[in-house]
């Protein structure tokens, strides 16, 4: 009888511990893009507002991964094509909805079209008027993609810092950018924070940026991160 009771106890213990066992995260690769002040590399480690946010989720899982910082187009392509890849911070658009497993929002995103404040010849009341101007936007970035969908020509940029220089040299008329990131870049470049002026709010894409897993990732892993996100941010952002 004691042997039977012991066997039952062991079976129940084995079932309960394995039912609540944490998935294996050893294959999970974490990528982000270089987008100050939200995410960047400093002294070989990822830093920034968004990085601090996702680490709150990781802490719930006792998961302390290396976070790789890439140019946006490369980070996106990795997450799009490699299973077990977690990417942040990414706009959740209809075109991307079925391409990723979404975990939750990480940071806010407030996008405006900026011009050189000295340019008095640029006036924008609606999207249609943008066709009269030369606009630069990051390659494969949601801001440029949105404008292209509106049939607005966009010059691809390698960085928004480069876009700022082009604006100030009158080689571009406008550039879409997040207002917090733009002010940060101007300060880092040693420029006055009001040297650029927001002229039009892109409200349709001014929505929070997310963390998400690539397709092909085990749903046990995805669900574990979703649960951890809820614990880290019980009241949302």
Describe the structure concisely.
The protein is of the alpha/beta class.
Approximate strand percentage = 15-25%
Shape: elongated
Largest beta-sheet details: 5 strands, mixed
Radius of gyration: 22 Å
Q: Given the helix and strand composition, which structural class is it?
A: alpha/beta
Percentage of residues in helical conformation: 25-40%
- Give the count of helical stretches: 7
What is the total tally of β strands? 12
> What strand line-up does the widest sheet have?
4-1-5-12-6
Low-confidence stretches: 4-19
What's the average pLDDT? 91
Order of helices and strands: HEEEHEHEEEEHEHEHEEH
State the separation between the terminal residues, measured CA to CA: 55 Å
Fold and architecture overview:
The structure is a single chain. With 237 residues, the protein is an alpha/beta fold. It is built from seven helices and twelve strands. The strands form four sheets. A five-stranded mixed sheet has the order 4-1-5-12-6, with helices on both faces. The protein has a three-stranded antiparallel sheet with strand order 10-7-11. A two-stranded antiparallel sheet has the order 2-3. Helix 2 (49-61) packs across helix 7 (219-232). The longest helix is centred in the N-terminal third of the chain and has 18 residues, at 2-19. The model is unreliable at 4-19 (pLDDT under 50).
């Amino acid at each position: 009888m004691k042997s039977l009771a012991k066997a039952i106890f062991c079976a129940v213990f084995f079932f309960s511990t394995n039912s609540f066992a944490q998935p294996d995260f050893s294959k999970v690769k974490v990528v982000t893009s270089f987008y100050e002040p939200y995410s960047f590399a400093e002294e070989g480690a990822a830093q920034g507002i968004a990085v601090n946010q996702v680490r709150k989720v990781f802490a719930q899982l006792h998961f302390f991964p290396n976070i790789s910082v890439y140019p946006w187009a490369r980070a996106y392509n990795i997450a799009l094509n490699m299973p077990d890849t977690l990417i942040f911070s990414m706009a959740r658009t209809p075109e991307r909805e079925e391409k990723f497993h979404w975990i939750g929002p990480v940071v806010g995103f407030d996008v405006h079209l900026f011009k050189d404040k000295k340019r008095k010849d640029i006036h924008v009341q609606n999207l249609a008027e943008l066709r009269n101007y030369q606009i630069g936007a990051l390659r494969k970035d949601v801001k440029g993609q949105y404008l292209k969908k509106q049939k607005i020509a966009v010059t691809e940029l390698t960085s928004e810092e480069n876009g700022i220089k082009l604006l100030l040299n009158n080689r571009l008329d406008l550039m879409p950018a997040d207002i917090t990131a733009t002010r940060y870049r101007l300060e880092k470049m040693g420029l006055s924070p009001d040297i650029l002026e927001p002229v039009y709010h892109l409200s349709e894409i001014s929505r929070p940026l997310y963390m998400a897993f690539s397709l092909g990732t085990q749903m046990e892993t995805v669900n574990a991160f979703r649960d951890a996100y809820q614990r880290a941010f019980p009241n949302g952002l």
